[in-house]
């Protein structure tokens, strides 16, 4: 074991003063390389001269510090750089969810909500924790303090020769009160000892949480709570007064309470640095260099000062320049042809080259490129019948470029999509002409194969997605007679969906090919509407495959409703579409109802929860990133409408219409001729009003215009037939003067004709059955602005615009009586009420053009980037089984770092490196005594992916076995006499034995380590099971708890009680998600009261509530295995591989470090709980004799499955990589490209 001291590690004071490191040198240190080629030389796997493997090498670091402290206070030093400020690693060891109870501690950690646990003494709360190593002194040595046990470091995989370790000193008082601001308490130690005054600590913790302050615990030796009195702060970043050396313990506590510092203040405290020269770590160590507490001139503060100067400069720059991304843009003027799709380089997108140096703006980098990607380009193409020349102009779409846009003036904006022409473009020459014309408008057309376009747009989009997204049941499509057949049934043919779905994917892939050629790193890609719901996923997969990370920022905005989860999951492809949308950084909707349905579908179909973020944002955690879900409204373009209102045609058409119906109130209506527009229901209500209110027969006329776009031909046929019948019936009953009905071809009426209709109408009726955002009611309100007389808008409560307009009258189109009453109210409304209703909406309608909408969405995109920068690993709270993709984590390497907290977070992120399997193999081959401990579910057995419904998402592996190649690898590893191999699982013994019981010499642990079976010794035929004595009468716990569980099981359909050796679980996987979560929260509260007398805790993870002994965690078995193996085989363990995938495995990682710190230390190497055999006899404990040797070199590989916040030092991307690693250690050959198959029905390939 390498015992390195500060004298070995830190640069000499003279040398540092003579040659301070500049900014470039320091930046180079954090630019770790992990993308080396597989054929690189030995330096690439951390091998130095002499054959020593540095990757995974354990280094034990001792400290000395001179500090004169008040009576009753002690000094501590923060531990290993396993974590950094701002991370959140949940630990279910107790209800406080603390991460700071291992010898290898860290900087303060802001706790998240990855797991929610509760016990009967400490309520769950979010607090700031730290773990640290105790320092001691003697009367002869005082005021010099030294570490009692070393800080354990693990060298990451790196080409660099210097490893930076950051640390801080803090002053504690074991008997002190829980402090606010400067200190605190309330945590439990590693053995979960009870606090002396649980109630007082409980109140203090709660108060601290409410006040936004922190609660700190440093207890990890079983001494209870230790209150922090002061952090070392010689540069007065917290401005604490009085100074440490001038104060008593009492005055320190008072000063600390008075300050009320925030968590962010403590994360930005100064830190010390020592540089470990890795090639010389095996040299003999000397007496540690002496630090002086509070001395700002210490050499170990010099790097902090240099770094702080860089941060100040970055803050200065950032105050005037906030960007979404800082990537480089490259221009490419080539024309590329791929699969029939022609892609034009960025320089050829317009007639003149667009400069990349526009002025900066607060929401985006000046000159940054944004692509508006939509299926239909927002342009109109018209061909001159004589010259055959094409002309292009912007359409009325909110996606069209608006003159004078300040946002687009500072963004290099392009539009990408298809175009529709009349006549169609046949020759390549005509397409080139269109490209040239649109290029001047910075529009990039995509020409699709006509058959593919027909199947995609008119087939899948309009016949499947359009009705489904508007909440139309597929059963209705097949039986309700929407499509005109002689027998009244539809011609719905489910078999057509396969071809339509293939065409849908093909079109999305074609768009992906185009965008992959156009987009540069950190460009913005804004994808619009349901036609391209898979594009964000295809682009992300392309970027990860080619660049190793996601390179563009993506927004997906849905302009139509999103259906309920009940309707959405009827789609065979619904889950794929949902996942495709979630690959965007921001998913936007026009109404909260639509967003709510989307969030509910994500929960019920994919099992993803959402959370409220700072600033009123909503985040869904999906595959390693937080996807923001936002609602953003947009109104009309006032300048365009004002210009159109000045056209003579508007006034003349208005006068003609009024003259035609002189003496009557005009009820205007303009609808698409499809069933969802609700025209038939509106006519039925109008007919009933004329019948029930005959006084209106001679006073009112309905001017109904119906558009026939041809996108749903059969739907339009049956709708027009029905409408014509109703119109004729009304005319026959009440005369032709009461209704003016016309049909028009096209998807819209020209703006001047619409405005004429709006100005002529006294009332506008917009009553669809389902509808996205419709701007026509807003146009109506604007057309009736002062000095015009106000009109009245009637909107359906099923339309998005009803949630935007406050002055509109809302109706339920299905409620005919309600419709009649509202019609009568609108016609009878006095002028004062009309003006009041107009006043409620005119400001929004007049001041919310697409310019503001674009700005708002880009602001949300910026917020998404900021959230990911501040929370780079925030995705694991939703699912234990979820393994982020390699590109799932947002890279923070290029982000501007302007604070100590951000710098340390980046350093921690960079040091958490992917496992280098070749380095692992070299360390394994060079070791003499090895311990390999692996988790079961999700580590060597692939967890079941989320099912079609959340109620089927049992995130376990009941009945599954590891693939045969993994079992073969375990056979080989266990046959090596140098190896001790254990598999630790939370499952029952039946499942584990069924899967692995046939492997000889394999140790097994079940129920999270509560019961274990050592490797079967030679000559033994039967396994021997042992149990930890955790100090709980489990039979008594069952007698109290099971009646409570039974009560909740009876009222929650699908729930059940799961009993194991030392846990009682209540599973609500199969319950309704909301109902199950609600019952689980009440169950925990009731159990807290009933089990207050027992030393138990409650762990609430996804879909299950468990009661377990307070002392139980997987770290117990890890500590026992390591300790017993080291005592039994001298000179001890020199290779440790520990692999786990979820929250419960974090204790295994911390226990490994605790063992490393205690090696060779008889005083601190204490055994764990006693062990009882099945016959009731207590097993003999192996004691440390004091003569045990410590291996010269120790390698430790704590490996997390999935890149996420963890106590581990390395990570792999999935269970497939675990299989590959075990096979390589066992000397088995891994086929090129991966293993052929898992032995599981749910997974087809180990490696893609």
Provide a brief overview of the structure:
By secondary structure, the chain is an alpha/beta fold. Helix content is 33%, strand content 19%.
Structure description:
The structure is a single chain. This protein has 1248 residues and is α/β, with parallel strands linked by helices. It is built from 34 helices and 47 strands. The strands form 9 sheets. The chain has a 10-stranded mixed β-sheet with strand order 34-47-46-44-35-36-37-38-39-45, sandwiched between helices. Strands 21-20-17-22-23-24-27-26-25 form a 9-stranded mixed β-sheet, sandwiched between helices. Strands 3, 4, 5, 7, 8, 11, 12 and 14 form an 8-stranded mixed β-sheet that branches. It is elongated, with a radius of gyration of 35 Å.
Radius of gyration: 35 Å
Question: How are strands sequenced across the largest beta sheet?
Answer: 34-47-46-44-35-36-37-38-39-45
Distance between the termini: 39 Å
Helix and strand content put the structural class at alpha/beta
How many extended strands? 47
Number of helices: 34
Strand content: 15-25%
Largest sheet: 10 strands, mixed
Average residue pLDDT: 76
In which range does the helix fraction lie? Answer: 25-40%
Q: Write down the overall geometry.
A: elongated
Low-confidence stretches: 6-41, 82-130, 177-225, 240-262, 322-366, 480-489, 873-894, 945-959, 1236-1248
